[in-house]
Write a structure and sequence with these properties.
heterotrimer; A alpha/beta; B mainly alpha; C mainly alpha; B: mainly alpha; MetI-like fold; 68% helix; elongated; C: mainly alpha; 13 helices; 0% strand; globular
């Protein structure tokens, strides 16, 4: 074990010029990497982790610059060195695996040619020998049928395949240090695990040091021995991974450790908290049910099962290469489940599992191919009159995934939340305003937000507005379609807490769609695991976590990053 | 637990240097700003915008208050004055037919700008309606409208106008001012609408899949309501940009048509007519002001509208918004 | 790829039929004597009347007339001018000059537009970029015939560098000035488009990845930025061909070039509507063919279209 550090970052500061001002993105950061070692840099968006990584190989965008400090690579300060030296370093000494596999490959070039370019530029191989090497590298990165794939274009690859190609490209010239910038964030969880496992094995066997950048604390602790936690441009804590996880000292790290779903999900405390929420919610919901059952005007019968889905199936007709030939694609295949009042049922699956399609059918946004959806005993297809349809709409509302697309950018926050009230002609203008204020209060947003526009709010704030809008008509069921998936870890935890609080207070029932099994434990009581349109396993959350029956479920559980780290009991 | 190596010991930053902020707090002091207001702010500081406003205002004054600029009558010309040099009140002299060059140019603004503005409006209306219907309803309606728009698009604008106006010339030889303007406007709009249709259709296609439209449907809004309240307002930006730029293009097109003798009748004061008439006289290199004066006025006007289009495009550019 | 080609070919047919239909309908709008319509309200000799009647099958039902119109268009049988010359002959005589002119204009447009646009895009917001912006806006504002006049005066008459008009015996040298004039109007658009394309691609993710590989700055620009930027520009230039053809009418008139545009202008001047229609139909056919070729070129350049 050599004791000379491979890379030493000393008091590095990086800033961006915006007009006359300079915004500091990285503030006096320090870190050390030894040869062959894997370290992880953890932080949310805006923490400066990616900026620091880009600064190391001088890949900052036009208005970025190093404001101070040193970057010592094998002893030499590369922060202030000339362009030629940096070019020589890039690729051959320090490699990069970038973040987004969809946009980081040139769409007009064959994949093999792009990897060959890395070989040629770093004087590793030329011509026919380089071609052979490319195929070897792709195989090494875990890409099956590498020779054929090398001649294809990026758009013919899946996301996971593209990421493997990017890994092959980063390692092509056998660098000593590989910077992996969130290399798997955009991928399905099982694919993530595969690729990271593979990367671990590769870098171990090649002796390559890895700087892994991630927002996921669990993943970082799983893959690296040494952690560096960054917050708003500064390194707030660093040290051995396990120590930090079991005994976080800086308040920010403590926050992360207590709220990050992958780690929190293993704690008994989260299970207990959920049970309390559920108890309250069921109680309130039962009251509402009794009212509904007795009154003749309310929509529905007042059943315990507020949502019953029977044999739901959706078949799409896709046009293939030949325009007159249509193939059937079964997105959802015979899905059945029941949602009880006051509880949360989660539908978990990776991309292509059909979970979002189920949600859209339940919301009656997508026509059903076969099967029934019963809301409180009423078949939603048999709602004859317009009036009944409107009343049904009031009972069930969605919260969608993309906070940047779920609010009309031309509507003020007030108008967005008021819209459902206006459509259903509820109350006078004054009464509506009071209701909007009340709703904003419920989602912990200041009422001054009413006159603002979505463009001025953050993702988490927009989701809260979306939740307020969903609650405007006092629905009984809220369908959350990946409602927290696009949010930063701590903001995610905040929204989940909010959803739990609202459920306890109002007796709501949730159908929660997500790809993240870790989140499920904090918010759901029952779970459906879907794969390629079919329900693979279905039971209570505790059962699924403690005694998973199916192999696929086990695979999903295994893939939760950080799921296997021993934590101090809390 | 493995030993820590030098440089990797446990480190905790002092809390007073790294204070925690509340998670995702709302900035209470900021002033609310809608997209249009933001765009207006950007427009306000754009030098292109103000330059175009100055030019367009100047031209507008020329159109509505021509007597501020000249006291001559542009339609009165006597051969006695043929090619008279500049004199008091007639800064650029006379044309071959004896018209006051400056007066012709001042009054000529009306015809050219009228054609430009009316064509732009008509094209915008046609394009927006067809584009919205095609993008929103999709399927066979979309295919139909797209094919028809392809057909009209495939005939180059000037050529099509040539055919249309040649034919109409036969039918309606003595048109008068507004008749002539109407013919040119209709001819231009008939073949220019596909441009706007494409913009609108593209924007509608993008927007109709956004989640706030689904949210509105989940509330109980009908498709028509969605189209009216959510989709069309968000799709306006590219159409506004394209229409503003097209104004300048139409004015140039009118002058080209007049140059070919297919535009406005030759006794009507229009820059195209003046330039066309000037063509022969200028060949020899004399009486250059016959060409320069209307050409300068024309170029200035078109520049004004094109600058406006550029400024509007920059203000509404979604990429610029991210900053 | 093959399906893309077939699909495009299939799309071309209704477009062509539709275009001919529109032209045909325009011919038939006026009620009354259809011959007068075609003859431009001028009295014509009985010979010409008979020729027109035969050419346009006046006595047949309307839909048949249109089919004949289409058939004639495809077989390039356009009847005769009023002077008795077969229009197809006229076209054969005049088209080659216009082709040479248009190709030269396209070359100027391409070289200057792409060259300057690339530099402007690479040095975005620099002084070069700003001056190019101003230049292109100015050029867009000046109508082509004004430019033509000025060029003719300045370079032809005053400076004597080129001959002010071209006339019957044309050669490439004499066509240089008209080609530049023709190119100038489009060049501004090409420049702007190229500039935007290059500037966008410069900050693209895959360009940053290319840099991370260790490629030199020049290689990154040439291989990754330019290649990707050119695709929209080249397809746009193909569409430009339409406006080039329209612009050719004016340029040829100013410089007295014996091309098809000039023939069209003469026909307009003389009021020979049938000849105008024939020429325009021919030009539309050429344009439809060109845009088909451009779309196929686009598929060659962008593999995503090919293998979609």
């Amino acid at each position: 074990m050599t004791d000379t550090p491979l890379l030493e970052v000393q008091d590095l500061s990086v800033g961006f010029r915006a007009g006359k001002e300079t915004l500091t993105a990285v503030d006096q950061a320090n870190l050390v990497i030894y040869p062959g070692q894997t370290i992880a840099i953890v932080g949310e968006s805006g923490s400066g982790k990616s900026t620091m990584a880009h600064a190391i190989i001088d890949l900052l965008p036009g208005n970025g610059r190093v404001l101070g400090g040193r970057i010592l690579f094998e002893g030499d300060d590369i922060a202030t060195v000339g362009r030629d030296k940096i070019l020589a370093l890039r690729g051959s000494s320090i490699g990069l695996v970038p973040q987004d596999p969809m946009s980081n490959l040139n769409p007009l070039w064959k994949v093999g040619a792009q990897i060959k370019e890395a070989l040629v530029a770093n004087d590793v191989a030329y011509g026919a020998e380089a071609d052979r090497r490319v195929v070897e590298l792709l195989e090494e990165a875990g890409l099956p049928d590498a020779e054929r794939r090398a001649r294809q274009y990026p758009h013919e690859f899946s996301g996971g395949m593209r990421q493997r190609a990017l890994i092959a490209m980063g390692l092509a010239a056998r660098p000593k240090l590989l910077i992996a910038d969130e290399p798997t964030s955009a991928l399905d969880v099982t694919v993530q695990k595969q690729i990271l496992d593979h990367l671990d094995m590769l870098t171990d066997s090649l002796g390559v040091a890895v700087m892994l950048i991630t927002h996921d604390l669990g993943l970082a602790a799983e893959r690296a021995d040494h952690l560096v936690v960054m917050y708003r441009g500064r390194v707030v804590e660093s040290g051995p991974a396990l120590e930090i996880l079991q005994d976080p000292q800086h308040p920010y790290t403590q926050r992360l450790v207590s709220k990050a779903p992958s780690i929190a999900s293993q704690r008994l405390s989260s299970v207990k908290a959920r049970e309390e929420v559920r108890a309250q919610a069921v109680e309130h919901a039962a009251e509402v049910a009794a009212e509904v059952a007795h009154s003749g005007e309310e929509f529905g019968e007042g059943n315990k099962d507020i949502l019953v889905v029977e044999n739901l199936t959706k078949v799409f007709q896709l046009r293939g290469a030949k325009p007159w030939v249509k193939t059937d694609f079964t997105a959802v295949d015979d899905v059945s489940f029941r949602l009880q009042r006051g509880t949360t049922t989660a539908i978990v699956g990776e991309s292509g599992s059909g979970k979002s399609t189920v949600a859209r059918m339940v919301l009656d946004l997508l026509p059903v191919t076969s099967g029934r959806v019963l809301f409180d005993g009423v078949d939603i297809k048999e709602l004859g009159s317009k009036k009944l349809q409107l009343r049904f709409r009031r009972q069930m509302q969605p919260v969608f995934q993309n906070p940047y697309a779920s609010l009309d950018p031309l509507y003020s926050i007030y108008q967005s939340i008021e819209e459902p009230l206006r459509t259903h002609e509820v109350g006078t203008k004054k009464e509506r305003e009071t209701k909007v204020r009340d709703l904003l209060d419920k989602v912990s947003l200041p009422t001054t937000v009413m006159s603002r526009y979505p463009g001025e709010l953050s993702g988490g704030q927009r989701q809260r507005v979306a939740i307020a809008r969903a609650l405007a008509l006092d629905p009984e069921v809220v369908i959350c379609d990946e409602a927290v998936s696009a949010l930063d870890v701590l903001v995610q935890a905040q929204i989940l807490e909010l959803l739990n609080d609202l459920q306890a207070e109002l007796g709501l029932s949730y159908l929660f769609i997500t790809h993240d099994l870790a989140v499920v434990r904090q918010i759901a009581d029952n779970v459906l695991v879907m794969q390629e349109g079919k329900v693979v396993e279905q039971s209570s959350v505790n059962e699924v976590f403690d005694n998973p029956r199916e192999a696929y479920t086990r695979k999903l559980l295994d893939a939760i990053p950080g799921g296997s780290i021993p934590l101090a009991s809390s | 637990m493995p030993e820590t190596r030098p440089g990797q010991e446990r480190f905790v930053a002092p809390v007073d240097q790294t204070p925690l902020r509340a998670i995702d707090a709302v900035d209470v002091d900021a002033v609310p700003e809608s997209q249009w207001k933001e765009a207006w702010k950007r427009l306000r500081v754009s030098p292109l915008f103000w330059l175009s406003v100055v030019i367009i205002t100047f031209i507008a004054v020329m159109i509505f208050f021509p007597t501020l600029f000249t006291s001559s009558d542009p339609s009165r010309g006597s051969l006695d004055n043929s090619f008279e040099p500049p004199s008091e009140g007639h800064p650029f002299g006379y044309t071959q037919q004896g018209y006051d060059v400056w007066a012709r140019t001042v009054y000529g603004a009306r015809a050219s700008v009228a054609v430009g503005v009316l064509s732009a409006i008509m094209t915008a209306v046609l394009g927006m309606i067809t584009g919205a219907i095609a993008g929103f309803y999709g399927g066979i309606v979309d295919t139909l409208i797209s094919r028809v728009s392809d057909i009209f698009f495939s005939i180059p604008l000037l050529l099509a106008c040539i055919v249309v106006i040649s034919v109409i010339n036969n039918m309606w030889p003595n048109r008068g001012f507004w008749g002539a303007v109407a013919v040119v406007v209709v001819a231009l709009s008939l073949f220019a609408w596909p441009q706007i249709t494409r913009q609108m259709r593209g924007a509608v296609l993008e927007i109709k899949n956004l989640e706030f439209v689904d949210a509105a449907t989940a509330i109980g809004a009908t498709r028509m309501t969605n189209l009216r309240r959510h989709i069309v307002p968000n799709a306006l930006a590219p159409v506004i940009v394209a229409s503003t730029i097209s104004l300048g293009v139409f004015i140039v097109a009118e002058t080209s048509l007049s140059f070919l003798g297919l535009g406005l009748p030759s006794n009507v004061a229009s820059w195209g007519n003046d330039l066309s008439a000037a063509q022969n006289q200028v060949r020899s290199g004399q009486h250059l002001q016959l060409m320069y004066v209307p050409a300068a006025a024309l170029a200035l006007t078109v520049l004004g509208f094109i600058l406006l289009g550029e400024a509007v495009r920059e203000a509404l550019d979604p990429k610029a918004r991210k900053k | 790829m093959w399906w893309y080609v077939v699909k495009r070919l299939l799309q071309t047919i209704p477009v062509f039929l539709g275009a001919t239909l529109i032209i045909f309908v325009l011919l038939k709008i006026r009620p009354g004597d259809p011959i007068l319509n075609l003859a431009g309200n001028k009295p014509v000799s009985q010979e010409v009347r008979d020729a027109l009647a035969a050419q346009y099958h006046i006595d047949d039902p309307l839909w048949q007339q249109w089919l004949f119109f289409v058939k004639h268009a495809i077989t390039l049988d356009f009847g005769n001018t009023f002077a008795g010359q077969p229009v197809i002959e006229l076209i054969k005589q005049t088209f080659p000059v216009t082709v040479v002119l248009a190709v030269m204009a396209l070359a100027f447009d391409g070289i200057l537009g792409i060259g300057l646009g690339t530099i402007a895009g690479l040095r975005r917001n620099g002084w070069f970029d700003s001056s190019m912006l101003v230049l292109s806006l100015l050029l867009l504002s000046i109508p082509i015939f004004v430019l033509g006049f000025v060029a003719q005066l300045a370079f032809g008459v005053k400076l004597g560098w080129t001959s002010p008009t071209v006339g019957g015996d044309w050669n490439v040298g004499k066509l240089i000035l008209p080609a530049i004039v023709l190119a100038v109007a489009n060049f501004a658009y090409t420049l702007r488009l190229c500039r935007t394309s290059v500037a966008e691609n410069l900050s693209a993710d895959h360009v940053r990845t290319a840099r991370a590989k260790g490629l030199s700055g020049r290689k990154v620009v040439v291989n990754h930025v330019l290649r990707n930027s050119l695709v929209p520009v080249i397809t746009y230039m193909g569409i430009n061909l339409g406006s080039l053809m329209a612009g050719a009418i004016i340029t040829e008139t100013i410089f007295n070039i014996p091309g098809i545009g000039n023939a069209a202008f003469t026909a307009i001047f003389k009021g020979e509507t049938s000849t105008i229609v024939a020429i325009v139909t021919f030009m539309v056919m050429v344009y439809v063919l060109m845009s088909l070729l451009v779309d196929l070129l686009y598929a060659v350049l962008d593999p995503r279209i090919r293998y979609a």
